[in-house]
Structure prediction request, 432 residues.
Amino acid sequence: MDSILIQGGRPLNGSVETSGAKNAALPLLAAAILTDKPVVYQRVPHLRDITTMITLLANQGADVSIDDLGRVRVDTASSNNPEAPYELVKTMRASALVLGPLLARFGRARVSLPGGCAIGARPMDLHLKGLEAMGAEITVEHGYVDAVVKNRLHGAHIAFDKVTVTGTENLMMAATLADGETVLENAACEPEVVNLAESLRSMGADIDGDGGSSIRIRGVESLAGGELSVIADRIEAATYLAAGLISGGEVTATNIEADLLDTFLARLRDAGAVVETGEDWVRCSAPNGLKAVNIETSPHPGFPTDLQAQFMAMMCIAEGSSVIRETIFENRFMHVQELRRMGAQIVLNGNMAVVEGIKQLSGAPVMATDLRASASLVLAGLAASGETIISRVYHIDRGYERIEEKLGQLGASIQRTTPNTDMFRRADLVTN
Ligand code: UD1
Prediction:
């Protein structure tokens, strides 16, 4: 199992290009199921979760290829197996995004239940309730969701009990081909939801209200293919900006509109960071160090739960004490134990962490437990004195494209190692 080895204490400086967003690319790829015409995607990040979604589509019979320009092309004309098997779903919960599209296109779907997840229970009851309201008959047996619909899904008025991102996306996709109008209340407003709505519109769907909490979809007979573009990964860009700040440097994230990062940047300013923005770039530095600020995660436009761990890493070396509340997932503090191994002063109390900033973290062997927790350990390692070895980095590969290369370009001393070659590679550690 690969590890990442970091020699900390070097300020990171320079520019880093933002990749396409994983959380936007996944629903966009699932949307290919809604049409029997080819769909071509620009800016699909090269990540493990994307490979899983592509494998899922190919497993259903889709023809998937990559053209000379690096664009992914998906043609589901010959798809004939509306199933998402356990082997794939267990590695990525977002596989459930195929449920709505399969049901809308084929009138039936068999999708494995996602099962446990490192950051909490993460059920899919809201997805299923919504599809039932649209006329699907659903049975959950032997670990699988079996859904069928006689004739066609019909429009429905659906009010989510809780804001759910992939739940909103799943039902929005299903509703594009349903008979009549669907209204989704208490819908997720995340930019990735808007990217999906815009993409579906370009394929001929009739959707409005996306970006707000009430989305209206009028079903159409069929959707066309087309060319779709994935938005910038705001979580990735924020992680690199945090890498600059935590290491005492100055990083510019390019190819990203600053408004995608509004709440995060506001908290950085509160923490004393200097934030500059241009048309498609964001630059951050903290010449006078970081001050402690409190954050509470909440659905967009609130502070993203996917940045909570990275923000906590910064707070570990900020001046003063900060309170970090996690309101989206009940178990998203797995990084706390590992950060403590690096000297961080953090007290946990239910969904609240109190972080007392210290002068410097110290490098240590730590273990990645989930995707964003891993990112926080990389950040801590960059700031820490000495060597940090992060094991189980396959979690990072789910969501960060070429992370060692991108951090290396910024001046980090970082290298991937495999168990048998650890000693060998340590000798020729790249420091660029
Ligand atoms: C998406 C993102 C993930 C992010 C999360 C919250 C993707 C691929 N993943 O995950 O990176 O951390 O949004 O911003 O876009 N819930 C239920 N029942 C359901 C569905 C959800 O109770 O049927 C609960 C969840 O347990 C959680 C909350 O709702 O407490 C929000 O989860 P949700 O927005 O659905 O997360 P995902 O869409 O899985």
Summary: Residues 23, 26, 93-94, 120-127, 162, 164-167, 192, 305-306, 328-329 surround uridine-diphosphate-N-acetylglucosamine (CB under 6 Å). The chain is about 30% helix and 25% strand. Residues 422-432 have pLDDT under 50 and may be disordered.
